[in-house]
Design goal:
The protein is of the alpha/beta class. The chain contains 12 helices and 15 strands. The chain has 2 domains: 136 residues, Aspartate Aminotransferase, domain 1 (Alpha-Beta Complex), CATH 3.90.1150; 239 residues, Type I PLP-dependent aspartate aminotransferase-like (Major domain) (Aspartate Aminotransferase, domain 2, 3-Layer(aba) Sandwich), CATH 3.40.640. The chain binds pyridoxal-5'-phosphate.
Amino acid sequence: MDEHKRPIYLDYNATTPHDPEVIEAMRPYLEAHFGNPSSSHWYGRKTHEAVETARAQVAALLNCEPREIVFTSGGTESNNYAIRGIALARRRPGAHIITSQIEHPAVTAVCGRLQGEGFDVTCLPVDEHGLVSACDVERAIRPETILITLMHANNEVGTIQPVEEAARLAKSRGIVFHTDAAQSAGKIPTDVRGLGADLLSIAGHKLYAPKGVGALCVREGLALERLMDGAGQEGGRRPGTENVLEIVGLGKACQLALQRLAANGEHMQRMRQRLETGLRERVPRIRVNGHPERRLPNTLSVSVHGVDANALLAAMEGQVAASAGAACHSGQVHMSHVLRAMQVPEEWARGTLRFSTGAMTSEAEIDTALTVIAGTAARLRREGA
Ligand SMILES: Cc1ncc(COP(=O)(O)O)c(C=O)c1O
């Protein structure tokens, strides 16, 4: 494909481009500073200082102490470490974990495996907007409950969960509370103290830092079982020589996210609204999934009735990049677990697309994308795709 004619990128929830300032911050650690942060000489001190600066930048975005930040390889590892780390540290007969049906697989699969290892897991349902009820959280709590893990915002439909309420319930009963904030960090405030979370996960590549780096905020004093054994990096919590280059990138991205939180949120929402309004005007028979108010500012899950989402994405391939919420194989619709939990009817689910805007999205891109989407949907409907 011609590099100058790239498709319009409306898939920022999948991943984000690198911010140019992030690239600049990382460059010296690619080109010049290669020391091992554990070395006591000049080379080591340079990279050690860079890692600690990044730790302070991440902590500032999350409103926690730098020593509460553990760098990881991304959202998946952060979630694994949080959930498995608590489960193994607090293992006892009947130990019970509460989660929800709309979590990312990096939570669901961890809980599933723990269930196979003898833990009891309750998976809470959601309403038609993809919202977990705090009353359901309260009802699910047992004397044996050791952990509640509830995502801050959903990656497919953007619904923001009642994390503060759930965290309060957990705290009042001595239960550890974890939230997966991979999608919310940089889009809405992710103040770990305000949310009341003991553990909070973030992923670099969702906020303009590279893929393969993330962080877990661990409340001071909370003991987690290590996932890996090795040397004593990250305060003995995560062994292995630090990924200095990307940690520097994550730190810079968090600094920028904090500075630009309000402006970026407002911009992404304006772009999302322009897209949503335009689609409602130009594409008949659509519905928007997710909560009408409690929704990430950038996320638009939209179902186009009578059209197969993958056929629509394939037909727009060179022009617009987005994701599908369901796949249709041999006449059978395989709905995403999120749409299924929301009980989106199959005839709507099969036409579900997720558009997600970002800091780099422009009005001109939205307007072009609107023309492409509306024109392609109309053509596929005529052809009965
Ligand atoms: C909500 C959520 N949690 C976790 C992850 C996994 O993060 P990573 O890709 O950094 O492992 C993602 C990425 O898609 C996500 O959207």
